[in-house]
Structure prediction request, 532 residues.
Amino acid sequence: MIKLEGVTKVYKTGVRALNDMNLNIDAGEFVYVIGPTGAGKSTFIKLLYREEKATSGKVLVDGRDVSKIRNSKVPYFRRKIGVVFQNYRLLPRKTVFENVAFALQVTDTPRRKIRNRVRKVLQLVGLEDKANAFPHELSGGQQQRVAIARAIVNSPKVLIADEPTGNLDPDTSEGIIELLQRINEVNGTTVLVVTHDKIIVQKYKKRTILIEDGCVTSDTSLGGYDNGIN
Amino acid sequence: MELISSIRNFPNHCKTALQNIWRNGVMSISSIFAVTITLTLIGVLCVIAININDITLSIEQSLTIYVKVNRDANEAQSKQIGQEIEKLANVKNVKYSSKEEELNKLIESASSKNKELFENYRKDNPLGDAYEVEVKDAKQITKVAHDIENIANVSEVTYGGESTKDMVSMLENIRNGGAIFVLALIGVVLFMIANTIKMAITSRSTEIAIMRMVGASNWYIRLPFMIEGIFIGLFGSIVPIIALYYGYSFAYVQFQRILSTSIMVFEKPFPFIWNLSGLLVALGCGVGLIGSFFSVRKFLKF
Prediction:
């Protein structure tokens, strides 16, 4: 599903964020991406949803070379990927329903289908009773659930979560990770979770990729944060 | 494909635009307010400039050349002069006035004491026939006057000479200066409105980033903003138009009463007010549209 071949990313400022990185993630996997700050985790993710272009090497997502997608086609490519951020990034002046529905509206989905689909997704994340609330009326955990609902509403093949629990307390964080796992199991979505949260990685053991100095230094399917890291 | 989708979603985009105006409260109001103030300013200046333009034109048009025909010329020669003047370039209108009519005019304009004196001339009229010549282009009045002087049997040509020429060029300068001033002001004002809209949009850059995140195409993001710009222009032009309607109707009546002479011609309120209102709406909407188009564009680059 995701394949990196000798990917190097050098920013205009001269910062070398990724250095000859190779990686392969199959469809339906659940993967943690961990590593110290500034190691290149964010750059790696930005390459996947084409926020940045690789300087050299190949980034393949769902069989497509992401760097070769024309600028005008990027919006269509992004509909195949769901992204969730640490700071939720919800539209502040739209209700929960509107926020989730927005991802479907842009794909020209018929209105009735949107309503059914959004209701179903809100049910999945456990927020069906908050459909008409505005984001600022919700707790952090609830906002993150809305963001997840929006990310999965158009059934993407890949779900990328960038520090999804960074702003949340431990209990809420576990709820979010369990939700991501359920999405991975029920929908078969490939899920990538970038995280700093040792407790989570220890508790829900999955394949864990460690990125240090711009390349993968450890890749274990055993999971856990204890392979001499940090 | 994007175009078809845009058209199909047009009602949705309009709804989103109105919703955004409502939910962005203060920012929308400040944009609308900026449009209102500037359009009012433009409206007032247009009213003044257009009326000054009209007045100077009517002054220029009232300038005539007065041609005296030689007393000795017979009727046929006199008519001949008229025909020759009409053939000249730039002549708009030639009015013949016989020597009897000239005397009548003289008597009418004279004071009562002189009237009796002039009455005596009825038997032996010392005046000759005359022509009043109107020109098309006031700047050419000197040349036309010289041409008329060269016609046989013309005794005297008067048109105000150099002072007329100076006045014509002054009126011309007033008109051009006014036009430049109004255009410059419109330019400044449009820039101001565009800037206000830009500020409003910049405060929503995260919103645009999120839209792009979920895969909205550029036009899908841009259109609601553009429609929003049009609505802001539209709402902003309501007050100026109402002010123009009542203000000009009232001012017209007052000015007519105080200043009305044959040359102080003001634009009649209708259809002038409607035309100017149309211009204001078009300016407001146009600037809103273009301003938001360029402001959003900045955030849509990859």
Residues 1 and 62 of chain A are 5 Å apart (CA to CA). DSSP finds seven helices and ten strands in chain A. Strands of chain A lie at 2-10, 16-25, 30-34, 56-61, 64-65, 81-84, 158-162, 190-194, 207-212, 215-220.
